[in-house]
Amino acid sequence: MKYFLLSLFIAILSYSNAMCQNYIFRGKTKYRSTPAYGFTCSACPSIERELNTSFAKTPTGGLMLISTKTMLDGRISGKVLIYLTDGSVITCLDKGIKDRVDDESKALYFLTTSEMETLSQNNISKIRFSIIEPGYPSSRIENYTASNSSLYSYNGELQYNTSEDIAALYE
């Protein structure tokens, strides 16, 4: 009986861990999100050479959170372009929601309902973003492109199936 109860407890604990979900927090509000994708950015000024990207569904559309390690006081800034496999492009405007913690720059971008629908039907090919490095006498802006490929295998694949994960947010 003791082993049965212990096995049952471990099974319940394992099930609850398997059912854990990803979230994006905006203030005190949390939104269920996709897993974080580590898009390859070979020219990025970071050790990891990745742009971490995740998406969340909101009542008015969606959110995209991007982050990368940056040197000095570099911050993700400006508009972000999302290139899709069907050839279309989604432009995300900078609303000034960003932070820099532990040498990692993070920025949050808003997406409309129709943009989220498009993302749920087409995989992301690339993401173009900018990092601004403040300096004297002027700041320097560098543009980068991160590709939908992983340095490591993701579910046996080297590319992320972003459309499937975004569509699952609506189930």
From TrEMBL:
Q: Specify the domain of life of the species encoding this protein.
A: Bacteria
**Signal peptide as annotated in the record:** 1-20
- Keywords of this entry: Signal
Q: Does the keyword Signal apply?
A: yes
Q: What is this protein called?
A: Copper resistance protein NlpE
